[in-house]
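Q: Here's a chain of 329 amino acids. Please give me its 3D structure as tokens.
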Amino acid sequence: SSNMCYKLCLLILAVVGLPDILSSANCENTGKYNNTSSWCESPFQLLNKGCYFLSDDQMDFDGAAANCKSLTHGHIYEVILAMLENDKDDDQALLNAVTELDKIFWVGGKTDDGISWTWPNGQDIYLKAPFWDVHEPNEVGNNCTAAQRNTHNDTLTTVIRSYIYDHNCNDSINFICQKIKCPADFIKIGNYCYLQSWNYGLPELSWQDARDYCLSLDVHEGFYGDLAVLGLEGQHDYQLMNYIMVNNVNHPWIGASLSNECSYQWIDGRELPLESSYWIYDQPLCGDFNSIALYHANYSRTSLASNIDYQSKPFICQMFKNTKKANLP
């Protein structure tokens, strides 16, 4: 149970005495994995809770945006030109870094009409937000945003802070990339992002309806949602399977189904061998049992089991890169 996992985690901390284990393990009694110690690796750096790369290279706005996007690797993180309005403490930590470096950096705000400004994810920029400098944005034709240190003097004091400004998109300046973690409602397990239907009160669905729902999800640009699979490079299968068991969720649909008389395959076209140790001892049943769910019942492990596809069950969605898009229905 999650309570047992919680107690075990506390015991390990007490016996081993490693305070930094808290950076890689969540000992709250939630039953969820929460590893944030390694997601922000060099050349990125954690500023408060945000993950940023302040580049020494200089290029125009579009080149900077493309450069950030090219840093997207793996199946979890999207990399974009940095946004503000994420978390006020993250925003302040980022602006403090700009102040310290005393350079001009592209951030991801842009306007097409000189009136409405948006971040790379399509979110509107609040023009009254405190991170704008006084009277900004104010220059016609400066359709991109940059962060820069400024000195404000008055009769009592001198204040050195960084703000954002409108800026000519064609100028070559430094830029800041930001890692965006799993989309809203997804959680990180191992090296992938997953959405569990039962965590959000979603109805139980047939296998095909569950897949259609996953495919409809709005995830990061360059990625798509689908039913979860196992056995991908860098995937932590047992972490996902253990998550199902710890949270006592039985029979959630995943992305595998019958391909012919008694052969199964994953939605990305990989074979699911009948001799795989992932199957429960008396499975698969073939025939009408044409879609796959994760099954744990009273056993101490989670296994694969074949089921009838029109049965309504919970389900697990996973975020994938478009480069290996699955065989869509």
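Q: Can you summarize the key feature?
A: The radius of gyration is 24 Å.
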